[in-house]
From TrEMBL, chains A, B:
It comes from Porcincola intestinalis. The keyword Hydrolase applies. Keywords: Hydrolase. Residues 437-551 form the Non-reducing end beta-L-arabinofuranosidase-like GH127 middle domain. This is Glycoside hydrolase family 127 protein. GO terms for biological process: carbohydrate metabolic process. Residues 13-425 form the Non-reducing end beta-L-arabinofuranosidase-like GH127 catalytic domain.
Length: 670, 670
């Protein structure tokens, strides 16, 4: 473990003005937050009812009624508040803050005197913590705590965080190794990482200890969940839970024995995020190695090329190594967000760029696939291949929506996407010691608080449309000593150019690293390459210019041949962006198309398409469906007839913004 | 509609001695019937409990207890009895008949005084016919009736059929258009075709009328099922039924408006079989056209190359046209049997060989895939592609078993396979007027009762290992006038040879037909080709020899390009037999293999393999997995490396008889 975990910098210090990301981030304040507020208040015609705010009013005694929605319905409000907090952190907004304050008052009004906070149980009064396997009480508490910490950090107002600290204190009094306490743990992890956040915010060790306890006790045998009354009686909240093994929620064995990612994907990556937090904080090297092993298992065996995870809908789960079907997969938006959270933590702890490569993949592809360009429609499930006619008629794909929805009865994903978009700064940028890490190349301005003074950096980029990154530095002090670490994405390794003030910089490899950028004029100055980052250590003057050119040229990507579903196929990427083929550009029967990978991938700029999109055009061939009569038999000796064609691809992130139609990422190779 | 429906001939007149089929049919009496008897009596260690006979003892008051198993558990006994009846029809067996008589006594002992017969409702006493959508009472009654008719025909004993006639009389008194009667119909069709059988056996018009009523009222709007109390109260017997639309059981619209096969595949084909029976009997041309349309929709849009149907597990149902996934499909054994039943009826009614082509496909492939060569293990679900590691870990395929099972809690398939094997004669052979139809070329002897005398025929064949069929005729009378109709399978159209007594016969086409077999020595005698049959009309002498040589050479078969799942792939067939590739012969990662279709398919005789099997060996190439390191990334620019190889295929019918392993029917084409 590296000596110190890298830190976020305040979101108010990061100003994003990026052509690609502004299409989404720009909507957070103006569209998404108000829209989602209306949704959780059940004011959007045509959307599924959420009952979120109503539940709080009922629990707080302001309204008569019962609880409606899922057991974890409260979390939609928490995630909305967390997103609002990030937004307020970046830019004050009295109206939004007033709304948030009112929501917080409603929440606190629903809190019980001892700190317990959960509208489902408060309203229904069936008792607390009797079904940790399914009940989501600790999961809900976790989201409340995350929101409260974010709100306190954003606004300085401590009312909400104090209320959540009271909730956490109550949890500390109920759970733990001591006799008389519950020796259980959450069916759905989340509280662990939240308690870590609260511990970091308050400094109170109890919260870290409880997080650690939840990790230590998890999966101990005999499994706690099996002893719970609902499980014993077969009276499940979610009927399918009776079929789920304990691996579904990572409780089939102690965490120390879990070396493969198993079960429900969101639970897994939320759990692993908490494990990484606690391991780093307590210096638990063994648990950290385990996190790394789990991450490797995901990224080398169980992740889609779009950075999504969860190969099966039933159980919304990981399946087995290399099993990555493209049209029946779950690939939940929340799971991708969790994978980004987990990877981001491992980067902060290890400073290894491979983790940030996965963050980038997840954010540039599946995170954005989850939201429409209008900011009002969402995907929960993100297939890599969709034929609407089939997905709508074959119940094997009944979890797949062929168009983004306004909202979902179980709406974990939309506000999760929102809070992630609102906090992109926490993925883009970190500081540690005298080093400022630039992870993601969104254009904008950053004021990085470094020990010798604030380093203001202006980033010019239109990534990944181009790989041209220009960083202009404005140190607080003249000749300020600082190290700037620039991420060199794995796809561009060995193919980049680095200049400072117009002078080419040669890069020395570290012990494990590569040696690159040696050619050309050598300024005498050196950068060091270490685990995916280029470290530039010098005394910076105002106006110093770093020029980094990455190779984002379109490329063909193959799946590992052990991924049966991708055999014989190829996909197209540009930098971290996966491209896909849509019916809107290419007509139907994409399955009948083949790509000629010996021909170049041409670039086509479409300023009017999807808010300005760089498209890829490839050569290939396709079955001539005019030669296939409607009376043709299903099976015959007739070989299909192919015709040459051109095919056009758009970023996967933008698919399904032009109505319903076929989409395919992996295309057959000619 | 042709003037008269073709008739079965008594099973005792058909003696099968066929190298290929004896492996299965030979087991019916010696292994399967005794084994299944033990199963339904819960005497097989390791098998799931059936409770079948126990339920009858409890319902009859012979034993204390409650009902166990599904609502239609009785049908396993009925199907066992039906199979036993066919077996007894072919060959008397005192022991078996004694066992069957005892079972029948138990059944009759469980019948209520008014004729009602159903252990589930008799034991639980919740009332009758209150949940036709799910309750399976009429389905169960149908199977009882089928068994009783078969038993009476086999043994001449009328006790069981009288008891079932009483049941049918009771149903006639309860259901019907008259005021005061129930205007409902079965959620699971079957009673329709059973009532038709009982009508044919007894001559009682009421049964035909009730069958017709069930067809007439089906799907009338508002749908009857929606008015039932369980549906209204949401108290479903099968929890998933609440998600099923009325199309699931072909009740979303009147039958006259149903022109595409929809919903649960078994229900559909059982229903269509009853429709065909009633249409033919009542001369309802419109309903018959509808049957033909539904059949065409299945066979041209929704049938696997193996003759199986049901593309989705959830709802065990048809999905949409051309949607035929190979590894997530249901392809239930019972559905294939139902398709054979439906097709057989349409053939009997229309004399069009295309229906018999489908019967042959279904019986030679999926029927046999459902049963192991030991006669004791069964598949319910018949995928065309299976990777055990994936099927066992990806819950999308949780319906797929990777090895045949001893029995199933819901065990509709095993006894259904048994009754079909035991009654193969009803598919092989029909008579109509002075014509004897040879449909399937199993070796054996047939005594066909024709108007001018019995025609004994000895069929020599080892089909489809060879296409050489030799039929020696022994008419009862000298120079007996008779027409022999020989099926010319579609795959051999234009490629066959027909001789009588060594003289080549030229074949005249009929109005719609082909003109073939013109080359070579012409005996002057002609055959007529009409809709898939070669009609030989002459005066036959004892010892006359018909020689038919079909072209069963291995061939490559392509899917219609609208079947996305088969694009770029090819499969191998020999006659009606689909071949498949198994890990046992070819190693793992069949998905990484490609076939060179420009190279010939070689024949390999394996006398020791699976009881003697003709294998196909093809050339091709496969990914060299030794070049794929375990640390290789999931996605990269690295193109897979292929190596030339040979691949061996065995009949799909015999797959999974050598332990668990990968299997694949459709292979990528090089």
């Amino acid at each position: 473990m590296d000596e110190k975990r890298l830190q976020n910098i305040p979101l108010r210090n990061i100003h994003i003005h990026d052509q690609f990301w502004d299409k989404y981030i720009g909507l957070v304040e103006s569209v998404i937050l108000p829209f989602e507020w209306d949704l959780i208040n059940d004011r959007v015609p045509g959307a599924e009812k959420s009952y979120c705010m109503q539940n709080f009013r009922v629990a707080g005694g302001l309204e008569k009624g019962t609880h409606q929605g899922t057991v974890f319905q409260d979390t939609d409000v928490a995630k909305w508040l967390e997103a609002a907090a990030y937004s307020l952190a970046k830019k004050p907004d009295q109206e939004l803050e007033k709304t948030a304050d009112a929501a917080i008052d409603l929440i606190i009004g629903a809190q019980e005197p001892d700190g317990y906070l959960n509208t489902y149980n408060t309203i229904l009064g069936k008792g607390r913590f009797y079904d940790l396997f399914e009940g989501h009480e600790l999961y809900t508490a976790g989201h409340m705590i995350e929101a409260a910490v974010a709100y306190a950090e954003a606004t300085g107002k401590r009312k909400f965080v104090n209320s959540c600290a009271k909730l956490a204190d109550y949890l500390c009094s109920v759970f733990g190794p001591e006799e008389g306490k519950i020796h259980g743990y959450p069916g759905h992890p989340e509280i662990e990482l939240a308690l870590y956040k609260l511990y970091k915010y308050t400094g109170k060790q109890d919260y870290l200890r409880l997080a650690q306890y939840f990790l230590d006790v998890r999966g101990q045998q005999p499994c706690y969940f099996l002893s719970e009354s609902n499980y014993q009686n077969g009276t499940f909240i979610f009927k399918e839970f009776k079929d789920f093994g304990m691996d579904y929620c990572q409780a089939d064995r102690p965490l120390a024995e879990q070396d493969k990612a198993e079960g429900h994907a969101v639970r897994a990556v939320y759990l692993y995020s908490g494990m990484a937090d606690v391991a780093a904080e307590t210096g638990d090297e063994r648990m950290l190695r385990q996190c790394e092993m789990l991450w490797e298992n995901i990224v080398r065996r169980k992740m889609y090329v779009t950075g999504s995870i969860g190969s099966a809908a039933y159980g919304e789960r990981f399946t087995t190594d290399y099993d990555l079907p493209n049209n029946t997969n779950y690939s939940e938006s929340c799971a991708t967000i969790g994978l980004a959270m987990f990877s981001n933590r491992l980067f902060q702890i290890t400073k290894d760029g491979k983790y940030m490569d996965v963050v980038e993949l997840a954010l540039y592809n599946t995170l954005l696939s989850g939201i429409a360009l209008d900011g009002r429609h969402f995907f929960y499930v993100n297939p890599l291949e969709c034929v609407p006619e089939v997905a709508e008629h074959n119940p094997t794909m009944r979890h797949v929506k062929t168009e983004r929805q306004l909202w979902f009865g179980c709406a974990c994903c939309p506000p999760n996407i929102t809070r992630t978009l609102a906090s992109m700064g926490n993925y883009m940028f970190h500081v540690g010691g005298n080093t400022a890490y630039l992870n993601l190349y969104l254009a904008g301005e950053i004021e990085a608080p470094l020990p010798e003074g604030t380093m203001r950096m202006t980033v010019e980029a239109d990534y990944p449309a181009t790989g041209r990154i220009r960083i202009c530095l404005h140190p607080e002090k003249s000749r300020q000593d600082a190290e700037i670490a620039l991420r060199l994405p794995a796809y561009s390794a060995g193919r980049y150019q680095l200049l400072v003030n117009g002078q080419r910089i040669s890069v020395a490899k570290d012990d494990a690293g590569h040696e690159e950028n040696r050619r050309g004029i050598d300024s005498g100055e050196r950068a060091v390459y270490r685990k995916g980052y280029l470290y530039l250590n010098r005394r910076w003057q105002d106006g110093d210019l770093i020029e980094l050119d990455l190779d984002v040229a379109f490329r063909f990507v193959y799946g590992n041949p052990k991924v049966r579903d991708d055999i014989g196929k190829v996909c197209i990427m540009r930098g971290p962006s996966v491209y896909c083929f849509e019916e809107a550009d290419n007509g139907a029967y994409l399955a009948g198309c083949r790509i000629d990978t010996s021909a170049p991938i041409c670039t086509e700029e479409n300023p009017d398409l999807l808010g300005g999109t760089l498209c890829a055009v490839v050569s290939g061939s396709r079955i001539d469906y005019r030669s296939v009569g409607s009376d043709e038999p299903l099976y015959s000796a007739k070989r299909p007839v192919y015709q040459p064609c051109h095919l056009k691809a758009i970023p996967y992130a933008c698919w399904n913004n032009r109505g319903k139609g076929e989409m395919q990422v992996w295309m057959r190779e000619e």
